[in-house]
Design brief:
About 0% of the residues lie in helices and about 55% in strands. The strands form two sheets. A five-stranded mixed beta barrel has the order 3-4-5-7-6. A two-stranded antiparallel sheet has the order 1-2. The chain has a single domain, classed as Nucleic acid-binding proteins (OB fold (Dihydrolipoamide Acetyltransferase, E2P)). By secondary structure, it is mainly beta.
Length: about 100
């Protein structure tokens, strides 16, 4: 079932609305020669009270989301990224900005 983002955007299954302030952006080089890599932007949402940690998200995309200290509201695709280490599987998720399809 699809939801509605704060700005009225439709959020499809396996998508999430991320809101917060840009803390930093960094370029990640690709190991593939046919790709220029991608940008990872760290977005922080303040905690709801003095006893909680702020929410921190890493959003990947073809460019930085915004300048540092700017507030953003973006829709991201939720993509699985499974890691295997010492016989154990770790199930993680990555957030990729919803933009035109490209291969990173």
């Amino acid at each position: 079932m699809a939801g509605i983002g704060e700005a009225g955007e439709k959020v499809a299954p396996f998508q999430v609305l991320i809101e917060g302030r840009v803390e930093k952006s960094e370029h990640i080089k690709s190991q593939r020669e046919d790709s220029e890599g991608f940008f990872r932007t760290i977005v922080v949402k303040p905690s709801s009270d003095n006893y909680s940690y702020p929410l921190t998200f890493a959003v990947c995309g073809s460019a930085p989301l915004a300048p540092v200290h700017q507030d953003v509201s973006v829709v991201c695709n939720l993509k699985p990224r499974n890691k295997y280490n010492a016989g154990q599987t770790f199930y993680n998720a990555q957030l990729w900005l919803v933009e035109e399809e490209s291969s990173f």
